[in-house]
From TrEMBL, chains A, B:
Record's protein name: TetR/AcrR family transcriptional regulator
Pfam families given in the database record: TetR_C_27, TetR_N
Gene3D superfamilies: Tetracycline Repressor, domain 2
Domain HTH tetR-type as annotated: residue spans: 1-54
DNA-binding region: 17-36
SUPFAM superfamilies in UniProt: Homeodomain-like (SSF46689)
Coiled coil feature spans: none
Keywords: DNA-binding, Transcription, Transcription regulation
Length: 185, 185
């Protein structure tokens, strides 16, 4: 995976083959294929590792802030982590585009991790009496979907950071108004 | 534009050149370049025409429904129109991917049209006393951003229709709860 990442970074994903990776490692392509049945599987594994590491940084996030501030803050920090990741690893975006038709498991895994992050934040808000929500798990799926335009790499490339920060704050404002609505069932 | 569309549909966007389009029309490539300075400009013009037509279908949407039902309905109908469009014109998605780095004006124009659609819906809701919102134009930008995961072609391809309908209804539920929050400034 490290060798593949280095090659992807140097040449791009589309121009790096399993044979190239095997050559770098001084082994036969068959040996690489034994572990990763295709380039898609390899890309998926690299994405998944990055994603899990990125989300891990957020799990211990435990500041003594009111739930709405916390949710807005986490969404914004997560977006900034993505921006940093894309700056550090420009080949990431190519991975996502090259593989966009493949519907890789890492994409679903990422969705799940983000949903769980929001679910925990919403639960804490409900427990502290600030949020009103009858099904935190279901609501967190909709909240995660509402943040896609600031958390999906496709949207992070073509927008300026200032515009993204405003959009992220705007969506957080909507989500917080919805979760705090005392009339909401 | 019609000739380009036909070629894009038959061969794909990446494999159709301005020279191919000129050849089909029995004219010189210079003649095509005179009108469309690059393939990106041509793709942009085709996208823009489709987008404008699609949104036009929604402008006269004038059912006597309460604002929240109306907003949910419009979002869902707009999503379904996109799904139909992608089914009828599979080369659309390729256009979007091929051109994703170009940040074409048609993309911004589409954003604006969707924002205006939501802005008018929100204004009607405020006028009828159902929604609370101090800046409808700004709020509509955030609402449009919240719906990106059901209105952007990238997300419409890899998700099942049932999942998309649920997601769209879920986001509409959040947005409606936010806009109806009497505590919201």
């Amino acid at each position: 995976m490290a060798t593949a990442e280095t090659l992807f970074r140097q040449r791009g994903v589309a121009k790096s083959s399993i044979a190239d990776i095997a050559h770098e490692l001084g082994m036969s392509p068959a040996n690489v294929f034994k572990h990763f049945g295709s380039k898609a599987v390899l890309v998926d594994a690299i994405c998944d590792r990055h994603i899990s590491r990125m989300i891990e940084r957020f799990t211990p996030f435990d500041e003594p802030l009111p739930a709405p501030d916390r949710l807005a803050r986490v969404a914004c920090k997560l977006m900034e982590a993505h921006l940093q990741d894309l700056r550090d690893n420009p080949f990431f975006l190519e991975m996502i585009f090259v593989m966009s038709d493949a519907d890789l498991p890492s994409g679903r895994h990422y969705e799940e991790l983000v949903q769980n992050l929001f679910r925990d934040l919403i639960r804490q808000g409900v427990e502290s009496g600030v949020y009103h929500c009858s099904d935190c798990a279901e609501t967190s799926r909709h909240v995660a979907a509402a943040f896609v335009s600031v958390l999906h790499p496709v949207f992070l490339v073509n927008s300026g950071e200032e515009e993204l920060l405003q959009r992220c704050a705007g969506i957080a404002g909507l989500v917080n108004a919805a979760l705090q609505n005392p009339l909401e069932k």
